[in-house]
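1st attempt posting a full record on here, be nice pls
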Amino acid sequence: MNIGEASKASRISAKMIRYYEQIGLIPPANRCEAGYRVYGGPDILRLHFIRGARDFGFSAYEIKDLLDLWTDPSRRSADVKRVAEQHIAALEQRIDDMRQVASSLKALTRSCAGDQSPACPILQGLQQPDSGKRDPSRRTGAVPRKNHPHACGKTNEVAGRCACPH
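the predicted structure (as tokens):
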């Protein structure tokens, strides 16, 4: 099947399939005579695995580890469980961090009159310098970034290859 059909079968966009190939989560696709990618059943199964792992919030790095375990017939379930438990701990920490952020924003919102006055405690709170109480490495957006430095100094390496545009 071509990349469009693989995309529909796996519910992963063609762009993401190409990206997963680029970073080594899936092996390079076979090519037809015209040079188009061709995918088979094992490729779709691997894409389903990746999709399932992404749905649980695993990073590309964690998915690489899980794929290595999945394809290793001598794997130990304890190793898989360890990866999952580490991910759960990270998710719970992110939830705690987000609750703290929500609590701080609620406090600022309660102090705002919300009237025609230009004075706004929310804006004043946002401009305040960091108190230094929070570890800067724990600041995350919607998707936490893990620090995996390599030769180019970037942090987007998976499967031993740099996916940086250099």
